[in-house]
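Summary for the steering committee. One of the milestones for this cycle was to obtain a three-dimensional model of the protein with adenosine-5'-diphosphate bound, which we needed before selecting residues for the alanine scan. The sequence and ligand used are listed below.
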Amino acid sequence: MKKKLIFSGIRATGRLHLGNYLGMVKGMLQLQEDEKYQLLFSVVDIHAVTTPYDKDKLSQRTYDVVLDYLASGLDPEKSLLLVQSKVGDLHAELAFYFSTVMTVARMQHLPTYKEKAQQHPDNVTMALLNYPVLMAADILAYHSELVPVGIDQEPHLEVTREVARKMNSLYGMNFPEPKRFATEGGKVPSLAGEGKMSKSIEGSYINLTDDLETIKKRLAGAPTDSGKGESVPTSGGVANLLQFVELFMGEDKRKGYEAMYVGEGIRYGDLKNELAEAIYAELKPIQKRRAELEKNPEYVEQVIEEGAKKARQIASATLAEVKEKMGLK
Ligand code: ADP
């Protein structure tokens, strides 16, 4: 049986946090165990240069995500690991052809584009506008039908589906229309009370490499209330903390705390301590594996080279077909 390829990527903009881990990595790990699929875990370093970045730190950041993937459970015997720039020529060329079927107006309407344009008003570049088209190239180069990503990526997947439909109808390609593979951590909230956990928002995240003390410190900064009320808050800091309780300690624990809220009251110091321990218990084995990998750069390098070689074979076949069907012989 020919395995179906599943692509997903994380930008090389820093260490992985719990949002990346629960929203994307855990979905990938779940699919890794399914014989039907071959997973392609990518560090999308070319996407990282679409917003201002530090060129002296980029390769270290890429390597950090590689280590986080491997430490989290990416198994090179089963899955591929791809540093995007290793096949950047193929992905970028494919993205260029895909950009011929997407209008500027369509791309300007994307919420992610608008957000980034607001964050970096002096860097509203062609690359930023084209970000989702490059993402479509990443995914369609491997004919990936499922994409394990967080809910925030849904508008980008819609662009991928549009590109696929247009390339299929205009040029007779046979691209799938990829769907999001949803995980229970599809939207991990920010520790700061509002919005999602993101490495670009200070105070919002916990990294996979954080030790117990750091986790406690980060949780200490999460906003709370008096711990008591007539009904359990459904948004804001307390609601977010309860979501973390559910994610790391299960639904029953959450229900217990909810009952306390409408009863005798929650002592947030206790809740945060218990939560920190539960988060650290999940991260500890990952950190142990990461420390071992740090001592073995030759092995990591070999995994990167192997992944790039296999990805190149597949992506170059897709690119050749696109060129041929577009009349670029
Ligand atoms: P960030 O937003 O921290 O810069 P990326 O844009 O690199 O992270 O996202 C990498 C992956 O992690 C994507 O699949 C994205 O959907 C997922 N992800 C990021 N933040 C969260 C979150 N808070 N909850 C769930 N998934 C998330």
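Key point for the committee: The first strand starts at residue 4 and ends at 11.
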